[in-house]
Hints:
Blueprint: H1 2-21, E1 28-37, E2 40-41, E3 54-55, E4 58-66, E5 69-73, H2 81-85, H3 90-95, E6 98-99, H4 104-110, E7 120-122, H5 128-131, E8 142-144, H6 146-155, E9 172-174, E10 188-190, E11 197-201, E12 210-215, E13 221-224, H7 232-236, H8 243-249, H9 255-271, E14 275-278, H10 283-286
Parallel strand pairs: 5-7, 8-9, 13-14
Antiparallel strand pairs: 1-4, 1-6, 2-3, 4-5, 10-11, 11-12, 12-13
Amino acid sequence: MKRLIALTFFALLLGSTIQAAERPQHLRIALLITAHSAGSPEAFTVSGGRWSIERKLVHPALLVDHPQGRFLFDTGLGREIDHAFAANSWLNRKLLAYEQLDPALDQLERAGYQAGDIDFILPSHLHWDHLGGLPDFPDTPVKVLPSGLQEAREHGQRPAFLPEHLQGPREWQRLQLSDTPYMGFARSLDLFDDQRLVVVELSGHTAGQVGLFVNLDSGRRLFFIGDTSWTLRGVAQNRSRPLFVQWVAHVDSDREANAHVLQQIHQLHQQQPDLLIVPAHDEEVARQLAHFPQFED
Ligand SMILES: [Zn+2]
């Protein structure tokens, strides 16, 4: 009898795991908030931002579940991030402080997924706060533009990069964009050849930063723009990060190139108000998305 109960329990457990990891019939997405920043005046996040408003930016991973592939667009912060972060200087630990850590893999496992259920990781770029969960997925391939990986490996330093994440055994797959323009961007990659998930290059914040257009069956369209801007306010007003922040932290690899990309996204935002622009860290925009284990399709 005991054995029967144990077997039944095991079967139920297995059943829920299979269900969670089943391939969906159609595209669906869910946001996983892996941490919040400790908070700062909005004026720190965007030029012309308000001093009286406190922003608590988020560190998300986006789970993209497509019948032909399941991937994370960014990982957010992971299980080893406290350890990695402790090696930063006192000033950087203050400037980049985060709280409410809840790594993507913890959230996935609570819902019955395993690391192996993720087919690949597609980081918007290779900064610590977007790739901090990488060690939790040691066997998962990572798709990147070669220029992004090259910059990170040759010039990547703390605190922006965690160099140890970029070494060691890992399958780095080359993203190959074609010369097919998409939404005003010169080069693009239609990930599964169905116009639902389209990658474009947004180099500037880092070399090889990419953005992701998501076209859901519901008709809702979203554009995940990485760190081109930290806030939607920056996109709406075409304003870069404040100069004093740029000066202290050297945030962008190529500030002019980032300003150019921001201008392009600003125009798109004006021309297509139904396209939801999603700056990775904007907590107000994040509230408009389904949060894992809820999905939007
Ligand atoms: Zn970031």
